[in-house]
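Q: What residues go here?
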């Protein structure tokens, strides 16, 4: 019993010491506290990605400065990553499965994603023939997928 009490006390002491050490600053500089100031909305700038609508599509400039053109009338979409599929369903309405025609075998959330045909794995095991057979207007991918496969 005494050994158990000693162990619990030692563990509690170590946790408290770790919390105290983790909460202290570096001590090298005294950073001033930022104060809120009112800025007129007309002069505010944004670092968010920008989109330029056009009759034939939309041009998007992302945070890295890359320009991506998405044509108007995209009706068939293939997602090559679970995170993209989840975001797709989060940003669309209840009928979102009508445009999403392909997903990876790892896409299991939300439950509606399981209604979409699987095209195979994410980085390996995805069938190029299956993707092509879906006749997609847009393929959404991550950097984990080899661009040669997409091209």
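A:
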């Amino acid at each position: 019993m005494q050994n158990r009490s000693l162990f619990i006390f030692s563990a509690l002491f170590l946790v408290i010491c770790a919390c105290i050490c983790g909460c202290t600053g570096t001590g090298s500089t005294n950073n001033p506290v930022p104060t809120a100031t009112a800025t007129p909305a007309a002069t505010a700038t944004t670092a968010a990605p920008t989109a330029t609508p056009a009759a034939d599509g939309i041009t998007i400039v992302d945070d890295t400065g890359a320009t991506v053109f998405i044509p108007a009338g995209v009706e068939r979409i293939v997602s090559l990553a679970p995170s993209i599929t989840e975001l797709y369903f989060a940003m669309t309405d209840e009928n979102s499965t009508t445009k999403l025609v392909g997903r990876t075998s790892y896409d299991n959330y939300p439950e509606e994603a399981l209604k979409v045909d699987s095209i195979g794995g994410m980085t390996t095991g995805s069938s190029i023939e299956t993707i092509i057979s879906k006749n997609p207007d847009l393929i959404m991918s991550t950097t984990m997928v080899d661009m040669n496969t997409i091209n």
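A: Context that may help when evaluating the design: Residues 73-150 form a domain with the Rossmann fold fold (CATH 3.40.50.1980). The radius of gyration is 25 Å.
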